[in-house]
Every structure is written in structure tokens, then in C-alpha cells.
Amino acid sequence: MTNTIRGLKPKLLKVKLSDFLEHLKLPDEALNFILKAKEVAEKQGKFLYLAGGEVRDFLLKRPSYDVDLVIEGSATDFLEELKRKFVFEVLFSSPFLTYKILLPQTGFEVDLVTARGEVYEDVAALPKVYQASFKEDVLRRDFTINALIYGLSPPYPEMIVDLVSGISDLERSLLRPLHLKSFVDDPTRVFRGIRYKVRFELNYADEFYQALSQAIEAQAFLKLSASRLRNELLLFVKREGLSVLPSLLSECQGFELFPHSGLGVDVEKLGEGIETLKEFVEILSPREVEDAFLLILAGFKRENLKRLFFADSVIDRLVKLYEEFRTNLQKVLSLPLIERVLRFDKIDKATLIALSLYLPELKEEIKRYLFVYSKVYPELKGGDLKELGIEPGKQLGEILKKLREEKLEGRLKTKDEEIAFVKSLLYSAS
Description:
- 55% of the residues lie in helices and 11% in strands.
- By secondary structure, the chain is of the alpha+beta class.
- Among the domains are: 2-171, 2-Layer Sandwich (Beta Polymerase, domain 2); 382-429, no CATH class.
- The strands form three sheets. Strands 1-10-9-2-3-6-5-4 form an eight-stranded mixed β-sheet.
- A hairpin with an 8-residue loop joins strand 7 (116-119) and strand 8.
């Protein structure tokens, strides 16, 4: 294998550094960091290069917003020298020979990796890594289009280096793993591949299907840890967005990835669920969108929630909540408005959205709550009531509840009306 790696002849494409850096949409501080890093690498006689997405995106004429630097040889010596020439902070390093670097002026973060090889000791396990040559570093990557590198220092300065026909695959819009055992080693590559396929409008190479078959046969998706499965599915939303989510999920369904991963997803509900999520997206934070997406996938099924890495206490709460609503639907719907609103107040938005999907009788009520009722509160607060002579305690809480009820029903519109209402309550109680 080592002789095979040594014998690899790279295809080289000359690209001026200024042209390459221009497509990186980075703050000046980050561009200057790259130039200083290049100087240090040249001084130390080390090969420094940009890897993966930055090179692929350059060839696709797409902007790139990240920096993934790779150094062949000791990163420790390299960083020590670089620190004498540029101000930065190493936020952390990992056992995978990676470093997260913070640039203080802009807060921009740079990833630096030691060129490394990987050994997978079991199906779907995290690899053991070791310092290696740049060729081994290239060959450990997921797809040929991500195995292109751009040299910043000798032996390949200002050159795109292609060891695996990645440029040809890009030109033919092909998504090809580097070897047929790729998805057995790391089944998250399939989910990543689906994202690339949809984002760049690629076609799967024959080797993709062959590698997928081997992964399914090895039960690699079932052996994938719950945390890694959750993270890969969340990247559908974080990196790609809701507009292409139906296409991403359709690809998953075509490969039957959900059952292969131990997820009993209600496929009929899935499309409806994404449309439901789109209805509410304007009132959700990014984190709430992610949580709602996972709950739509899980459908309040205990085994699904566990497979998606929900904590046991959260699973118990969600399953209990769903069953309470399912078995008491009519009772909930017949509650006075204030009681329904107070009940929904105790439930986070993501869970409410999932409830509206799996208990459609509640959908319109939940929709009204999220868009209207949840925003209706009296102008008077606890401090205002104290100034009116009401002591902290049960009475104050009851009056605030009554105020909100009157606001919800539309009987109080101004602060003066609220004050008059409170005074009438106090008068009638005296």
C-alpha cells in the first residue's frame, strides 16, 4: 500500500495565489494569517496546503467562507514559529491532530490539521489517526471532489494537486468515494454525499452504489452511534436549509437509510412535517428549527428518540406529554381559552409543532397559539400590581392570570383599561 501511495502521480493545475485567495470570502485578518502561515511553512521546509471544500468550490466558481489548512509534519513546531509572527489563539487541539485557531481582531476561526492517515478498527467506529504524508492525507478523504488540494508552499506551490481524478469527476458531475469500503468505515459519508449531490446537482458514480451496498451488508448504519447520526441529520438543516430538505429526505428514503439506521420514520408524515415546519419557520430560532426537525423525524416514538440521541429524561417527558394529549384531545380542546394557553405556555415551540403534525386535531389551535396567543400579555406587570397595593403571593398571580384572560378575549385593550379592571377586582373583593 505504501509503495502504491508513493507511486501516485499527481495531476497539477497552476493557479495564482492571488486568484485562489480572491475566491475565499474571508476577512483580511484571515487572508494575512494564510500568507504568514505560508512564509513559516516555506522557512521550515514543510508542505502547507488548503484542502477539500475550498479547492472544490474554486473549481466550481463558488465562494468559500472557511479555511482548512493542512501541514505535512509537526503542527506543534509550525504553530510555535507562526505565533512569533502573527497574533492568534489556539482554542483547542484534538486527538485527531486538529487545531482550532481563533483570530482575535475578527473572531474568525481557522482549522489547522496535521496531514494524517486513518485506521478504522471496526465498522462505523471513529478512526485512529497518525501523522502521515500529504498523499495519505488525500486518500483518507470521503469523495474524489473533496480530495483536491491547493499547495501554498513547495513542493507544489500555487498548484491544485489532483491524485484521484477529482477534477475529472467535478467536470462530469460525479460523486465518487475514494474506495469501496469507504461507507463501511464511515457511514456518515453517505449523508454527507447526499448533501453534496443535492447542493451541487451531482450524479452518483457506480462506486457510490457499490460502497453503499457494502455498508448496508455490514450494518454500518445501525452501528453508527446515535450522536453521530443525529449530527449528520441536523446538517441537512444547518448547512443546506429548509428549501432543499424535501430533496435530501427523498434521497434518504430512496436508499432506505432510515430503516437501515434503526429509525422507524413515518414516511407519509415526513413531507407534511417539512411543510408544517416551513409554516412556522419565521417565528423559530435556528436551534428551534433543528429541534422541530428531529421531533418530526422521531414522531414521539421512544425508540426513535433514543436513536436520535435524546436524553432519557427528555424522552420520558416527550412520550408522556404526547400520550396525555392523545388520550385527552377533546378535553384539551374544550378547555377555556386561558387554560389552553397556559398549558401551551409550558411546552417549547419545537414540541408544539411536532404535536400539531402527529395530532392534527390540535394543529389550528397550536397555530393560533404560536402566532397570536403566545404574544398576548397584559401591559401591567407584577411591579405595577404592587404599586396598586397588591402584595406578592397567590392573589397577585390570580390577578395577572385574569388580566391575561381578558386580553386574550379582547375585552381589555389599553393599560388604563387594565388598571381600571384591577381596581374593580380589588373593590369587589373588599
